[in-house]
Amino acid sequence: MNMPTRLFVILALAVAVGLATAISPYASASPDGLNKVAEDKQFIDTEKPHSIQDDSPIPDYAFPGVDNERVAKGLAGFVGVLFVFALGYGIASVVRRRDSGGRSGVRA
After folding, report:
1. How far apart are CA 35 and CA 60, in angstroms?
2. Which residues of the chain fall below pLDDT 70?
3. First to last CA, the chain
4. For 84, how many CA atoms within 13 A lie in the half-sphere containing its CB?
């Protein structure tokens, strides 16, 4: 990765982490559209979470074990951004290696 690209990635990651950490605690607590309809039609109490939600590492967009709700949501945003970045970076690295595997390194 050349220097301008590396600098861009670092700055973009810093902005994303900063926004996710600082702004996510202030996200609206109002229900989304589906939950609002379920409340209005009075079938919200019959809702059962999918089994994958029981095993979620960060349930309800709040980091577990943290008593302060704003801090818990900020941590969830921070961890979420880092996880998605690491996943994307890993996939890009694998694809880059596979693409350059049969080439001599000479670019057109």
Report:
1. 13
2. 101-108
3. 17
4. 9
Is 39 part of a structural domain of the chain? Answer: no
- pLDDT for 90 equals 94
Q: Which domain holds residue 66?
A: 1-26+60-100
> To the nearest 5 percent, what fractions of the chain are helix, strand and coil?
70, 0, 30
Total domains present in the chain: 1
Closest Cα partner for 24 from 64, 63, 70? Answer: 70
pLDDT digit string (tens) for 94-108?
998 887 765 555 555
DSSP character at residue 39:
H
In a domain, 82, yes or no: yes
- Note whether residue 4 is domain-resident: yes
77 inside domain: yes
**Residue 58: CB partners within 8 Å, gap ≥ 6?**
64, 76, 79, 80
The pLDDT of residue 101 is 67
